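User: Hey, my collaborator sent me this sequence without any context and asked if I could get a structure. I don't really work with proteins. Can you help?
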Amino acid sequence: MASTQQPASSGSDGQRYATNDERKRKRMESNRESARRSRMRKQQHLEELLSQLTQLQNQNSIWRERIDAVGRNYHGVDAENNVLRAQIAELTEWLDSLNSLTGFWADANGLAVDIPEIPDTLLEPWQLPCPIQHITANADMLQF
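Assistant: No problem. I've predicted the 3D structure and written it out in structure-token form, which is a compact way to encode the shape of the chain:
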């Protein structure tokens, strides 16, 4: 087969190469610009994520402080409740002793004294069936 050879350089070939080079240059320039925009978007996204991370860490710190404060408050209230329960037990025992002495005194003197039982609602005030009513007292009432 006979091969046809093209002339080494004709005017149209030179123009075609120049056009191809121009297209290649434009494509490379477009790719560089696209890559630059992509890097900028990626950097902006990273900065947004870092900002969000800082904000979430600050919120986390605030919530931890609040939780710790509630925990400390709970332990304080729990300790106070334990003291109050111990006082209730001591006062109940003291009232039972006084009721017994009053009963002995009434029996010895031949008097009829009605000594009511201590209601459960006084021993377990958190189970009161009615709203809490304030009791007024003065310091003289509690002296031993």
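In plain terms: The chain has a mean pLDDT of 80. You can pass these tokens on to your collaborator as they are.
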